Amino acid sequence: MTCATLVLRNLGRRPGRTLLTLASVSLSLFLFVGLRAVVTSMERVAADSAGQLRLVVHQKTTMTTLLPLRMGRQIREMNGVRAVCGVRWFGGRIENSPEQFPSLAAETLSFPRVYSDFDLSADELEAWHRTRNAAVVGSGLARRMHWRPGQRVALRSTVPPYLTLEFQVIGVTEAAAYPNLFVLRLDYLLDALHEETETSADYDNAVNFFWVKADSSANLERVRTAIDARYAASPHATRTEPEEAFVAQFTKMFGDLPTIANAVGTIVIAAVLLVVLNTMSIAIRERTGELSLLKALGYSRRRIFALVLSESALLGLVGGLIGCLVPYLVFSRSASAGLRIPYFPVITISLATAVTGIGAGVLVGLLSGLAPAWRVARLPVTTALRSV
């Protein structure tokens, strides 16, 4: 009988215990991989943002305070600036629907230049400029809401004066960074504010942010400093920061998710380590006599040690394959698969994350098997046989 056959038979001796241990390992590693996926998805968004050469300008003390539109024209004239897009938060929701998604109003002409990574087609760009109530939506949002180009959608704003506006979907972007985003034209929103409310001109002709696209990476810091310096003494003092820093700051409003995810993941690995260690300790204690008999038949200490360690590592490997590889294969087979959280990118399990989880499972199996394997390998044959 080979060692591999012996390992498999030992694991199958107590099928109930083995299955429960595999279930614990699989569920724990699935949670670990899910938490790692949250971190890697956020890191991916930050990396994508860093390559777009964009800065975010907002009011210095709070993001809810509006900035006059004329500031965008002034920023556009600065050296090193390629384009400026004023953006205003609309916060639209569908009546009687729990669905939440970010909705922003962007300047018509500059939006395609600043957000060139939306990858809109020529026909979609033409429709964006031609249609007053045009809207561009992310692919994930469009699939969930069953929206398609040409469809009309009514949204009610969640910020004063709580307008209800109708939009026509002119395009669906497949850009990975914007799966849940809804973008409308700023001039359509401002015209509605003028026509339907009695708010002041300062409120109507203003935005929450200016997205500034620099002409080169070398000019990013110089443009950032110049913008803040220009408005430092004005009533509209600004804070300008790289887009990746702004995204990180926004996500921290919900808590320091990467730190939390890493901490919980570490606790999960420690817990599953104890589970497998307990299983192996019980299994080896039950088979002490059999293992001592193998020693009497000529099995060396090294071979006994490898036999027990292989059994433990196999538990970790199989649990890792079930808990990590299976969800990866499920998500990778569907373009719409993934976990969707409002205001966050789609959380998907990458191959690297799945492999990390499987590796963690094998490592847990090896570590949990070390103590039982070492103990039984060093136990004298005569002492072990007395316990039979």
Radius of gyration: 29 Å
Beta strands, count:
12
The strands making up the biggest β-sheet line up spatially as 4-7-8-6-9-5-3-11-1-12
- Please give the alpha-carbon distance between the first and last residues: 23 Å
Uncertain segments: 334-339
* Strand coverage percent: 15-25%
Secondary-structure element order, as H and E? HHEEHEEEHHEHEEEHHEEHEHHHHHH
Given helix and strand content, the structural type is alpha+beta
Number of domains: 2
Shape: elongated
The helix fraction, in percent, is 55-70%
List the helices and strands and how they pair.
Blueprint: H1 3-13, H2 15-50, E1 54-59, E2 67-68, H3 70-76, E3 81-89, E4 92-93, E5 103-106, H4 111-114, H5 122-130, E6 134-138, H6 139-145, E7 152-157, E8 164-173, E9 182-185, H7 186-196, H8 201-204, E10 206-207, E11 209-214, H9 220-230, E12 238-242, H10 243-251, H11 257-286, H12 288-296, H13 301-332, H14 351-378, H15 381-386
Helix pairs in contact: 1-13, 2-10, 2-11, 2-13, 2-14, 11-13, 11-14, 13-14
